[in-house]
From TrEMBL:
Listed SMART domains: CBS, CorC_HlyC
Protein name in UniProt: CBS domain-containing protein
A Pfam family recorded for this sequence: CBS
Stretches assigned to the CBS domain: 58-119, 122-179
Organism: Rugosimonospora africana
GO molecular function: flavin adenine dinucleotide binding
Length: 274
């Protein structure tokens, strides 16, 4: 309870408390005799995750299933039954004009499922979050207001993606999986370098998984790094070098880099940066 209160104060959302800085919280943790080594490690991870922004954990708009307000309910039924999601943003003609969302049960469990209505008739209010909002602050705000889904808005007012309460919580406590989640990439044995990674992997997770820190830039993911380095849309077989590693595009979905292979160069040398 003490930690939860301190974290909410760090996010500036503790009722009746003034916010505290991360340095102050770390000092409190260091001075406490009630927190053991493992608990300190967890707190460090929470603080590190809390420093990230919503744009780093959101589902990008290219991976979101949108439903148009004019879509007949019968058509929406068949579309959503095959999806792995339970909540769907509702748009009015454009992905940048999100007017609400519908839950799967709204579509499948209706008093009179005659199929003559439209998705827009069932749309609920949806929350909006700026892409640059901190994770801890966003989590606190969504919990306080009772929202499970939010549209992430970029600096131009367009839709960058969506984020769920589960996405934010997972950044603090680790992955929450259920029977509908896609199985994550297996962790390499004994800390070995993975052969491939998902192109959507954000920079912090990539560094944690591989030990390779990609240079900061106008991107949040491995795919974004490759696009910036190449200066164009990557294709299968495109590659770039980073220190002694080659990052090679091995799969593309549409215009997005789906999988990236990590390859060490042949013995006998170090490859310079491009």
């Amino acid at each position: 309870m003490w930690l939860a209160d301190a974290l909410m104060r760090l996010a500036g959302s503790g009722a009746g408390h003034e916010s505290i800085s991360e340095a102050q919280l770390r000092s409190l943790v260091a001075a406490s005799r009630m927190i053991d080594g493992e608990e300190r490690r967890i707190i460090d991870e929470v603080l590190a995750a809390g420093a990230r922004h919503v744009r780093e954990v959101m589902v990008p708009r290219t991976d979101v299933v949108f439903l148009d307000t004019a879509l007949p309910l019968a058509a929406a039924d068949s579309l959503t039954r095959t999806a792995r999601y339970s909540r769907f943003p509702v748009i009015d003609g454009s992905h940048d004009d999100v007017v609400g969302f519908v839950h799967l049960r709204d579509l499948l469990i209706r008093p009179e499922p005659d199929g003559t209505g439209t998705v827009g008739e069932l749309a609920r209010e949806i929350k909006r979050l700026p892409a640059g909002k901190r994770i801890l602050s966003a989590l606190s705000e969504m919990r306080r207001e009772g929202h499970h889904l939010a549209v992430v808005v970029d600096e131009y007012g367009g839709t960058a993606g969506i984020v769920t309460l589960e996405d934010l919580i997972e950044e603090l406590i680790g992955e929450i999986t259920d029977e509908y989640d896609v199985a994550p990439d297996p962790a390499p044995a004994d800390g070995a370098m993975p052969a491939e990674v998902d192109g959507r992997l954000n920079l912090a997770d990539f560094a944690e998984l591989t030990g390779i820190e990609l240079p900061a830039g106008p991107y949040e993911t491995v795919a974004g790094f490759l696009m910036a380095r190449l200066g164009r849309l990557p294709g299968v077989g495109d590659e770039t070098h980073l220190d002694s590693w080659r990052l090679v595009v091995v799969a593309v979905e549409g215009r997005r880099v789906a999988r990236v292979a990590l390859m060490a160069p042949a013995a006998g040398g170090r490859i310079a940066l491009d």
